[in-house]
From TrEMBL:
<dbReference type="InterPro" id="IPR013641">
    <property type="entry name" value="KTI12/PSTK"/>
</dbReference>
<keyword id="KW-0067">ATP-binding</keyword>
<keyword id="KW-0547">Nucleotide-binding</keyword>
<dbReference type="Pfam" id="PF08433">
    <property type="entry name" value="KTI12"/>
</dbReference>
<protein>
    <recommendedName>
        <fullName>Chromatin associated protein KTI12</fullName>
    </recommendedName>
</protein>
<comment type="similarity">
    <text>Belongs to the KTI12 family.</text>
</comment>
<dbReference type="GO" id="GO:0005524">
    <property type="term" value="F:ATP binding"/>
</dbReference>
<dbReference type="InterPro" id="IPR027417">
    <property type="entry name" value="P-loop_NTPase"/>
</dbReference>
């Protein structure tokens, strides 16, 4: 249903805000007046995944920690859930990854920015008694590297900023965003590519070669004076092509064949994001090649 990213300085009160929001949302979806499909509110955090604060001491340990967070979010996203990610989320590139994951799952998104001054964060960090304290060096490093969310970029919008002095969250506005906001479709970068069958390249080469041979045979037999002709390929596959009112040379057909094969080889080897199934069978290839010949052969 929705995904909420919480971002802020280390020890800025993000976890407190996450619990406040989770409690509010849980009350909303269990209210007798609620008629939506959401049935669960889940908070994912460093603590819930067993990620230690020391993971942020250096980049080589932070990268797998972010990977763990992303994987957990991707697994949890669902149309009947509200997922709240309680972590630093200070890197805009990582927030963009989370945004793409949410789009792929077709859920609404918003960002909650928990604001506190560095001095307050230092004070709160030093007074922690739960064993989740950042080292002073890591704390200062994270302050310097923090990339503030912006309402001007799509992956942080809609953005709700909450200061340390605010007594409550903008709960109603957040509820409006995650229940009535626009659901953006996945972009092409997040779509799963449709892979061609293992014999597609062989079929592409064999079918186009057979069509070239059949067209040359028709012309040699004097059966083609231009216009549409029917071809029978190997295995009885039927194909049709409309030719100009002249004989086409073998070199012309071979050039068109090479161009056609080159164009389609990339789609076969790397996959395609075309909607629906992509047919790489002999009949489909023959039809596409026939159309390609009609569009690219010169009439004179």
């Amino acid at each position: 249903m929705a995904f909420v990213t919480i971002s802020g300085y280390p020890s800025s009160g993000k976890s407190r805000r996450a619990l406040e929001l989770a409690q509010f949302l849980s009350e909303k979806i269990t209210s007798p007046s609620y008629e939506g499909s959401c049935s669960t509110v889940e908070v994912i955090s460093d603590d819930s995944l067993g990620i230690e604060r020391s993971a942020y001491d250096e980049s080589r340990s932070e990268k797998p920690a972010r990977g763990t967070l992303l994987t957990a979010v991707q697994r949890a996203l669902a149309l009947n859930k509200i997922i709240i990610l309680d972590s630093l989320n200070y890197h805009k590139g990582f927030r963009y990854q989370l945004y793409c994951a949410a789009r792929e799952s077709k859920v609404r998104v918003c960002t909650l920015y928990a604001v506190a001054t560095p001095d307050l964060c230092r004070e709160w960090n030093s007074s922690r008694q739960d064993g989740h304290r950042y080292t002073p060096e890591t704390l200062e490093n994270l302050f310097m590297r923090y990339e503030e969310p912006s309402s001007m970029v799509r992956w942080d919008s809609p953005l709700f900023t909450v200061a340390w002095s605010d007594e409550s969250l903008p709960n109603d506005s957040i509820w409006e965003a995650i229940t009535k906001g626009n659901i953006k479709p996945p972009n092409s970068g997040t779509l799963n590519v449709a892979k061609a069958p293992s014999n597609a390249l062989h079929t592409l080469e064999q079918t186009t070669t057979a069509m070239v041979s059949s067209i040359m045979a028709e012309q040699a037999a004097g059966q083609s004076m231009g216009g549409p002709i029917s071809l029978t390929l190997n295995g009885g596959t039927k194909a049709a092509v409309c030719l100009p009112a002249r004989n086409i040379t073998l070199s012309e057909l071979q050039r068109l064949k090479r161009q056609f094969v080159t164009i389609h080889r990339k789609a076969i080897t790397l996959g395609t994001t075309e909607k629906g199934s992509v047919d790489w069978g002999e009949e489909s290839i023959a039809k596409k090649f026939g159309t390609y010949i009609e569009e690219h052969v010169k009439s004179e």
